[in-house]
Amino acid sequence: MENNYLNQGNSSIGSASQASAAFISQVFTYMAGALAVTGVIAYLFGTNLELVSLLRNPETGSNTILGWVVMLAPLAFILLMGAMMERLSASMMLVAFIAYSALMGMSLSYIFLIYTQASISTTFFVTAGTFGVMAFVGYTTKTDLTKFGKILMMALVGIIIASLVNWFIGSSGLQYIISIIGVLVFTGLTAYDTQKLKEIGAQVGTGSETASKLAMWGALSLYLDFINLFLLLLRLFGGRNND
Fold first, then answer.
1. Structural domain harbouring 193
2. Does residue 220 sit within a domain?
3. Total tally of structural domains belonging to the chain
4. Is residue 242 situated within a structural domain?
5. Is residue 243 assigned to a domain?
6. Is 68 inside any structural domain?
7. pTM passes above 0.90
8. What is the pLDDT along the chain (243 residues), one digit of tens a residue?
9. Within a 10 A sphere around the Cβ of 14, how many other Cβ atoms?
């Protein structure tokens, strides 16, 4: 009798573990696809003068109308996906996610004008390695990262406020401090978000409409962790074209 209960318990744990693993696999598939779209679009726009001119006036260096749309549209897409998540179908969310990734690629194309391609490549691989390690930690650790996550979210709000203030005062020293703290925050958020998604996956699994939408939303969270970590590391260590 006891063995039957034990077997049932082990079966339940194994089932939840398999569901979680399948869900996380789906999350990272969506995330990898989004990063690929962003990377290709960023490279095409950042290395083609004709495409660059669509976003930035070559004479003044200021954004064109399309440039401002590309800069602001990603935020609108995040708000749309969050607010309309229950109403949008999984296929429509996927279209929105792909469109968002493409717009982010256009928005990030400026890094090819500022930093050398060698430093961009190096920073990308460093980011990928750091992200991979922290995602693994978040997935395998037995420690509850909930309190840790709350602290990181408060720190993120502080970084946003400090960045807005620094946008007006233009302090290079403050920007350096913000970048260092930002790297630590997004490194930690990678582990926290991965653990949170693991727990969600154990409950919803895969195959349903809801599971697919949650996987895309989770992929967006990890995508943003990766992009922000990459940009902060690039700001700290990237070699500039005019150096």
1. 2-237
2. yes
3. 1
4. no
5. no
6. yes
7. no
8. 555 544 544 444 556 778 888 899 999 999 999 999 999 999 998 888 888 888 887 777 677 888 888 877 777 777 777 777 778 888 888 988 998 999 999 989 889 888 999 999 999 999 999 999 999 999 999 998 888 888 998 998 898 888 888 888 888 888 889 999 999 999 999 999 999 999 998 887 777 888 889 999 999 999 999 999 999 999 998 888 875
9. 10
